[in-house]
Amino acid sequence: MDRLSLIFWLWMLSFGITFVWALVQVMVGRAVGARPGSVVLGYGPTLGKCHIGGILWSFRPIPGGSGVSFKGSTKDTESHDSLLQLSAPRYAAAVLLPWVVQVTIGMACLGASEALRQFGSGFAMPFELFLLRGRVERFFALVQHGELVTAWGLLSVKMAALNLLPFPFLAGGTLLLLPWRKARPGWVDKLGLISLAAIVTWALYVIYLLVTTLV
């Protein structure tokens, strides 16, 4: 596989997982009683917008992340977050189930035992910097050899594990802060900024590895 094809398939895999997560988040949110208002797919400048099923979808060029907003305007309040109005169990389901679906997809692609093993090791990825280059190279090799189903499954479970880490701005931290979901203590925001800086630094290193491996 030539370099351009490799970049294309890497983009498609990342965007596909981003889109599936957002779609499941919308479906789960509606199922538990929340009303999704908008979805943002990817990072960077907005390339296009459209309304689908009463939801505003925005598309951006850099995959790897997405966001679903449950805020909407009401007569009583300027910003009404229907997700925060849910009971604790429903709120937890809305946060957790989209990542359970990603792990299930990984199990379908890799087999149950291998997917769970890769999912478990994914929690340690931010702390194992010395292993990252080898992991990136092995993942590229999967894509280059056309093992796209395996690559999809692997990326799905790793992204699920990363997002379930106990940082305030990730799903794992959101679950831990469930009792304070409507009024977060001040220290949470400070901890969130520190952990966000650490994760961004890690992500930049991953991007550096991706670029240097490609060239």
Write the topology of this structure.
Elements: H1 3-31, E1 38-43, E2 48-52, E3 55-59, E4 62-69, E5 71-72, E6 80-81, H2 88-110, H3 112-122, H4 129-144, H5 148-163, H6 171-176, H7 186-214
Parallel strand pairs: 1-3
Antiparallel strand pairs: 1-4, 2-3, 5-6
Helix pairs in contact: 1-2, 1-5, 2-3, 2-5, 3-5, 4-7
Transmembrane segments: 6-28, 160-179, 191-211
Keywords: Membrane, Transmembrane, Transmembrane helix
Protein name: Peptidase M50 domain-containing protein
Annotation keywords:
single chain; 7 helices; membrane; alpha+beta; transmembrane; transmembrane helix; 215 residues; two-stranded antiparallel sheet; Peptidase M50 domain-containing protein
Estimated structural class: alpha+beta
Mean pLDDT: 89
What order do the strands of the largest sheet run in, or round the barrel if closed?
2-3-1-4
| Beta fraction | 5-15%
Low-confidence stretches: 73-78
Radius of gyration (Å):
18 Å
Report the strand count.
Answer: 6
Q: N-to-C terminal Cα separation, in Å?
A: 14 Å
Helical percentage? 55-70%
Determine the number of helices (DSSP H or I, runs of at least 4 residues). Answer: 7
Largest sheet: 4 strands, mixed
Number of domains: 1
Q: Sum up the overall morphology in one term.
A: globular
Helix/strand order, N-terminal first: HEEEEEEHHHHHH
Keywords: Membrane, Transmembrane, Transmembrane helix
Protein name: Peptidase M50 domain-containing protein
Transmembrane segments: 6-28, 160-179, 191-211
